[in-house]
Amino acid sequence: MDPNPPENEGNDRVEFRESLQLLDQTTSWFWWNTAATLVLILVTMTILVMPNRQQNLFIISSLLMAVVLIANSYTLYRRRRLKLLRKHLTDHIQFTLKQRRRADKFYGLSITDPLTELYNRRFGEERLQMEIQRAEQNNLELAVITIDLDYFKEINDQFGHAAGDWVLKEFSRNLRKAIRSCDLPIRNGGDEFLVILPDCSSENAQLILSRLKPFEVVLNRRKITASYSRGMAQYELGDTPQSIVQRADTSLYAEKATRANPPA
Fold it and tell me: Does residue 88 lie within any of the structural domains?
């Protein structure tokens, strides 16, 4: 559920604009009041230094000074309102930033896998479609890597699901270290993973593949060896997300077929 309904957001924007308008009006008042005060002081001083002053001149100067006092008294009132307005705007900005951080957090949760903290399948499908369109429109290179852990079911059966989760987490850490900062690691589900490599040549994709090596984890003093099969495909004109992933899977299955013995 959206924590900030559109109607409330609209009201906040109207209130914020009104506050800015009031701030502009107050700032403008300070400028005109300062200018008027200087003029009145100059006029008063001119009258006071005129020769042959009469009583009416003194009265006029007194009236002018009274106007200055009134104007400055009102300025003090506006200054207090300005202080309250500034506090209101500061609170509003802080609240908006807090809501933005909250929205970013919810968005992050909606696109990531909670166990591995990689991107989830839905996000991966959307981004792969976008990257294919970008590669086609701008004549860019694009590669994808598919990864499947070997004998993951046997690891769960032999060592338990906690061990399987630990293997997935450790693999995800290794995967993030192997890829570039611009690459998108995705958990499709279970022990299946996809990596989208924008602006990546076949040579660079092979280099990344070479960094993905078997690893070991220790859980309750038991050593678990984990390996995985990998496939890679380069974007070809006319590719769809399904076709490019299918070619990568074909390469993956060929590599997996060479692994005959489950871990001891």
Answer: yes
Active site residues: 191
* Closest C-alpha to 78, from 120, 28, 38, 36: 28
Read off the pLDDT of residues 12-68 as tens digits, 9 standing for 90 and up.
566 666 666 666 666 666 666 666 666 766 666 666 666 655 555 666 666 666 776
Domain that holds residue 233: 121-256
Distances (CA, A) of 245 to 132, 146, 198: 12, 7, 14
**Coil vs helix vs strand at 258:** coil
Predicted TM-score (pTM) above 0.70: no
From residue 207, give the alpha-carbon distance in Å to each of 153, 200, 211, 234: 29, 11, 7, 14
Label residue 191 exposed, middle or buried (CB < 10 Å: 0-12, 13-18, 19+): buried
Angle between helices 55-111 and 6-49 (to 10 degrees): 160
> Last residue of a domain, which of 90, 111, 132?
111
Q: 219: exposed, middle or buried (C-beta count within 10 Å: 0-12, 13-18, 19+)?
A: middle
